[in-house]
Amino acid sequence: MTTPEIALNSAVADRIIALLEKGPKDPGGWRTSVGGMEAEWGQDVYTVLIFILTHLDFPGDKAREQWGRILRQWETLNASVPDGVDLRVAVLHYFLRIQKKLRNPAIVELKILRQTQDSAIYDELTRLHNYRYFQDRVGAEVRRAERYGAALTLLMIDADDFKAFNDTHGHLAGNVALRRLGGVLRRSVREVDVVARYGGEEFSILLPSTPKLAALKVGEKVRQAVEKAGIGSGGDGTPKALTVSIGVASLPGDAGTTVELVDRADRALYVAKSMGKNCVKPFSDERREYARLDAALPGCYSAVESATHPLTTLNVSEGGLLFHTAEPLASGTVVRVQLALPPSGEPVECVVRVLRVIGARDGFEIGAHIVHMPRIHERRFRLFLKALKAGEAAPPAGENQDDGKSKRRPGARGAATA
User: Of 92, 175, 352, 373, which is most buried with the most CB atoms under 10 A?
Assistant: First the structure.
């Protein structure tokens, strides 16, 4: 069922209200305009259109039928009234005299309608589109990109170290900074691009008809514009001005659905944050997108549930593993891996796809891409990588920390479990 909130919180409603404000004045012009919108969004256009005009709820096919009758009635009225009538008069006449669906009708001023719609789709602080509008729009743009075979790219943007900024300057200054940041983002892209506050200090920019390479240039332009704006800094550059990290993902190369597009851009953003912040990173399945850290983690893998084989990692990253094992694996094989994290040997599990196999002394070096890791294990693994990168990971179990003679890799050994 359509509700006022759903009807107003959409790109379709935005277009319809713009037509009501400055659009065609005759039935033919409206027939053409709404027909073009149907080609983009389907029959839901008619549901939203009738709802905005009357607050009556019809499913798409029925709303389309009602709209056709309204236009015909409008044409009849224009033929009998010397100066003609406008759309809203035709709608009222149709539902009062023909369909008799409306009781105690009230005409809502477009200014009030626009204000109501604005409150539903815009973020009050930044005046950018809000998260709910973004969700609606990204779905519509994905469907349009699929229909016309066009490119579509999403930028996910996060203000670096914003919590520290808030703690230093206070929440009022933080709000001012977010408002300024939103203004910089909006001015850095085209009018057709959709800039939204995704939540907190995170923003998104949807770039229709923009391939990934071009979007990376846009992302770098945005990053530089934010850096140049000096948001939150004094005139002499102190304290440190806000910067942003940006993740980039495109349709169809990186994703096939709305959910995948957002997920890939978010993962690319995480890479940008982990690579030092204040940078733009594209999504890629290549494990080189992630910082690789030497770590000798013991564990095991199983290609089938009944068989497990020991392994030791040579380096690890958020996106993949390089490990040594006595048994060969074919490229493309998908296996389950379990690793023991220091200092307690706490296990994490993941599913990996083998990318390359190289013969090595006493076995094989296997390069693998992580395709799945349970959320609770992913959290523990990220914490371990963070500690490892900071040099805070515990030494291998059983190693003499006071010896000083042996040079070890960062990481840990522990009991491998099946």
Answer: 352
